[in-house]
Amino acid sequence: MFKKNKFKTKLKRKSLEPVTGYILLTLLVVILSGILSLFNFKTTYNVLDSVKIELVSITADTFNLFSFDGLKYIVSNASKNFIVFAPLSMYLVGMIGVVVASASGFIDVLFKRMFEKMNSKFLTFLVVFVATISSLINEVGFVILIPIAAFIYKAKKRNPMIGVVAAFAGCAFGYGTSIFIGSIETQMIPYTEAAARLVDKTYHVSLLSNLYIMIASSIILSIVGTLIIEKIIAPSLGKYRIKKELELTDNLEIIDDEELEQNMITTDYNEKKGFKVASIIALIFVLFFIYSVIPGLPGSGLLLDYGEKTYLKQIFGENSYFQDGFTYMISLLFAISGLVFGFVSKKFKNERDVIKACHEPLSEVGKMLLLLFVASQFAGVFRKSNIGTVIAGILANILSNFSFSGIFYLLIAIVIMMISDYFLTGVQAKWAIFAPCIIPILMKSNMSAQFIQFAMRGVDSMTNGITPLYAYFVIYIGYLNIYNIRDDKPISIGDGIKILMPYFAIISITWILILIGWYIIGLPIGPGVYPTV
Question: Which residue, of 68, 93, 102, 381, has the fewest CB within 10 Å?
């Protein structure tokens, strides 16, 4: 009896490495695709021709990866799947600047000056809020803000995993909202407008149509998110205990107090001087960055896409240089500031000192690369299997056949799209499938297409953080393990999801209450736009 209990305890404590988890998930997808294709798992659904404004039927079927052609795809596309995996390039580009700034000591001094005396709860609100509105510019929050938040919490002598969770939760669960328009509008509006024109051929959806409700939602979600982090998640993560490198002995080392004090004064002076110069250089860089998005001035507009007619599309359009180059510019800002601080504070004397100082911070990048590789294979294999698209198509057909309407239909649509989002992440692909069936039905119930679009943004955010299919989930799980002090107990994919389940549940309810409340009250959701037609 004792041996059996002992065996059960060992099994219970067993936790899979995330790398192993992604490999097992990949194998599961391969086997599942073979089984589903055997049973002819497919569907036909409607998408919109945005030019002719008419529905076009598309058939999606499961690709059998457990076949000769499937295995050939897996082997021949491993490198390609890794290279095109969005988090890889963004992470590497973003981390170069963070690593240099960290190695020079610039980040430590910056955080000490800015956050040392800040209230812990307000700091959490700040992290969640900045993470929430970061979706304004693609996924920069995932690759820059998560490591920065971990640094801040560690400097505040709090568990850095709280910072990782707060930053990721804000980015993932608040992805559908911001304080201004961004890349999401440019992805969704063409489908929203085309679907609305099935009912009204003159219907127009502007880029600013969700502005008011986005601003309000950003603040509400950040406040609620802060309460979840501080009251539920932070206590569950516990305190951060740094491993002791030195043990107390009976031998005492004699230190020259005067020499030590002098060294501290010199170091403090050099750091203040370095921080001052680095701050000036950083300000100049930021001003240059701002100048590069202002049109019409001599040499300005470097990051604008002049192929677009309106300024908003020039800066936030699909081919915007601002969108594509933002992560690199932020990385450059940290790198230049770090280098200036390092050389002025005399931490660096030459380029060899820079490279040597970066060795230790770069070890984190090495840990992440293997995880990014296996996650990229999982994402690539699942995408090729087409399982997510088939599931979304089936769910869209179910929605099309419902006889309900109004707010009750919207709630059903939210639940069904949440299920779909778990398997098919990404706003554009999902909205292309669901917009043609949802928007006409709800518009006939006197609900505006712009309000329906915002509801979809909320749905897309609700499940982002709890599906390993979400590309940037790998960054979150990777950083949790970087700051996990339990070498014998890695944080698995399941553990990462479990940590976020309270956030998912409460934020989902908050999203739904915002939508219902706004609809009932009838407040404008944007300039001249209301929840009803």
Answer: 68
